């Protein structure tokens, strides 16, 4: 195998044999169109790859590009799109953004070197998908018994009392939101084979009116989606003080290398 | 109370219905099985960028910078908060009294998420 001078091999994901059919990857532009997104056989494994221009994906160029928010977003979405398509067609272990080799043969070598752990990962995720569950506290929601501000503020003592009660209300809401998050986590863990906490999102993502109190991922058997949705619907009915969101099904990003037991 | 998470996002044709950029980034940058590539790009470098600081609450400190003082004011979450609770209340009180003295009326609902942008 002669090393390609002008292209690198970008590896999106690893699947078991036979991997996704060519049609499943056909319409994808990947990270560097127009080169096709295709499969690459590597022993018992099948990689999902794309040839990318070496000039654009050398270390410096790559670092620069991923430091640009718009470009980072484009790459991340393209990477994710390929993995999602692959996952729809075959059990898929995602690799992180920008896993790059100097040619097909180097990619094969790397997969061979990690064959055992990749096969273990495939065994763990086959027939399962990742679901994201988020719980938000609704910030700034007035306490149930808010007193009328104008009149109360007339007296300093009453005003102080009003502030205290507002503070108490806030603390109660926060405590309740955290307890709600734990309840949600416990219920969903009961349906999952593995779980993992992710970092809560900042205000730029959540908006100013709510605070992210639980960001978690769960590895769940494909057949349990309805149960999961029903459980969340019931949790929502029980507690209107928080928002509960479900995202997915995701490729098992958060469980490719494990995760905690539920 | 909705299952959709599209408020700050555009829908993605082939992905899950609910994939905002933060959801995707936390997965494609941090997760997946890591095998050594030939091109060494430390994705943790990206950690240093304001992009990440703005999208994720990686610590209480970052949360505070992002204007989320919520954690600090909850004594159950932070022992420091317990110590500061009175000071915070006093500061808030002074602020409110000043506002009232200046004739301005009720503004704050208690949540105050508007303390400036994130990421310094």
Oligomer designation: heterodimer
- Separation, N- and C-terminal Cα atoms of chain B: 33 Å
Number of helices of chain A: 10
Overall, the morphology of chain B is elongated
Work out the helicity level of chain B: 40-55%
Task: Just name the CATH architecture of the largest domain in chain A.
Answer: 2-Layer Sandwich
- Please indicate the percent range of residues of chain B in DSSP E strands (runs of 2 or more): under 5%
Poorly predicted segments of chain A: none
| Domain count of chain A | 2
Span of the ends, CA to CA of chain A:
45 Å
Measured on Cα atoms, how large is the radius of gyration of chain B? 20 Å
Measured by residues with Cβ under 8 Å of the partner chain's Cβ, the largest interface is: A-B, 90 and 75 residues
**What amount of the residues of chain A lies in strands?**
15-25%
Mean pLDDT of chain A: 88
| The CATH topology of the largest domain in chain A | Alpha-Beta Plaits
Number of helices of chain B: 5
Mean pLDDT of chain B: 52
Secondary-structure content class of chain A: alpha+beta
Quantity of strands of chain B, as a count: 0
Largest sheet of chain A: 5 strands, antiparallel
Give the tags.
heterodimer; A: 262 residues; alpha+beta; Alpha-Beta Plaits; 2 domains; 5-stranded antiparallel sheet; 10 helices; 9 strands; 44% helix; elongated; B: 120 residues; mainly alpha; 40% helix; 0% strand; disordered C terminus
């Amino acid at each position: 195998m002669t090393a390609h001078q002008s292209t690198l091999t970008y590896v999106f994901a690893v699947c078991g044999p036979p991997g996704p059919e060519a049609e499943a990857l056909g319409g994808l532009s990947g990270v560097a169109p127009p080169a096709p997104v295709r499969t690459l056989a590597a022993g018992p494994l099948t990689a999902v790859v794309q040839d990318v221009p070496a000039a654009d994906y050398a270390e410096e160029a790559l670092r620069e590009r991923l430091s640009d928010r718009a470009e980072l977003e484009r790459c991340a979405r393209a990477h994710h799109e390929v993995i999602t398509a692959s996952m729809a067609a075959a059990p898929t272990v995602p690799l992180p953004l920008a896993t790059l080799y100097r040619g097909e043969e180097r990619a094969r070598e790397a997969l061979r070197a990690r064959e055992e752990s990749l096969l273990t990962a495939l065994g763990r995720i086959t027939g399962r998908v990742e679901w994201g569950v988020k719980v938000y506290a609704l910030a700034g929601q007035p306490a149930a018994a808010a007193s009328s501000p104008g009149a109360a503020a007339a007296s300093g003592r009453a005003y102080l009392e009003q502030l205290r009660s507002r503070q108490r209300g806030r603390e109660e809401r926060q405590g309740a939101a955290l307890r709600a998050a734990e309840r949600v986590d416990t219920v969903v863990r009961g349906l999952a084979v593995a779980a993992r906490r992710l970092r809560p999102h900042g205000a730029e993502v959540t908006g100013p009116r709510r605070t992210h109190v639980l960001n978690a991922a769960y590895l769940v058997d494909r057949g349990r989606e309805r149960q999961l949705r029903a459980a969340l619907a019931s949790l929502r009915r029980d507690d209107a003080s928080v928002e509960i969101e479900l995202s997915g099904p995701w490729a098992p990003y958060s469980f490719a290398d494990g995760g905690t037991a539920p | 109370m909705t299952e959709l998470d599209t408020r700050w996002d555009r829908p993605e044709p082939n992905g899950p219905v609910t994939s905002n950029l933060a959801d995707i980034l936390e997965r494609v940058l941090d997760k997946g099985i890591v095998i050594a590539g030939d091109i060494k790009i430390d994705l943790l470098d990206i950690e240093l960028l304001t992009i990440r600081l703005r999208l994720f609450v990686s610590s209480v400190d970052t949360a505070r910078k992002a204007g989320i003082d919520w954690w600090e004011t909850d004594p159950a979450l932070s022992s420091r908060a317990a110590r500061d609770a009175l000071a915070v209340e006093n500061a808030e009180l002074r602020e409110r009294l000043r506002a009232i003295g200046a004739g301005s009326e009720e503004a704050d609902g208690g949540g105050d998420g508007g303390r400036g942008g994130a990421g310094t």
